[in-house]
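User: Before I run my own analysis I want an independent prediction to cross-check against. Here's the chain; please return only the structure tokens and, at the end, one sentence I can use as a sanity check.
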Amino acid sequence: MNIQKMMKQAQEMQQKIATMQAKLEEEESEGSSGGGMVVVRLNGKGIMKKITLDAKLMDPSEKEMLEDLIVAAHNDAKIKVESNVNEQMGKIAGGLNLPPGMKLPF
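Assistant: Structure tokens:
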């Protein structure tokens, strides 16, 4: 493979990655915990956009449980975001023979 062809492929991939990142910012993933009592919505970059709490959790005696449920819901949503990013990157990198353990974007 010549260097010009490799450079062209790298530029094309860079454009695809930029497009994918813009698309991911618009997509959202939702995570929940406590049987849906806490719901967290993150965009494709992992930024929290919304949190919904069941009114039953507003009892001051449930403060510690609420804190745990928020963390669990956020982690659930974050796993979904990361899975989506990996899936999208796999589509872009399809056909490339990247070394094991190398992730995109670089």
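Sanity check: The chain has a mean pLDDT of 84.
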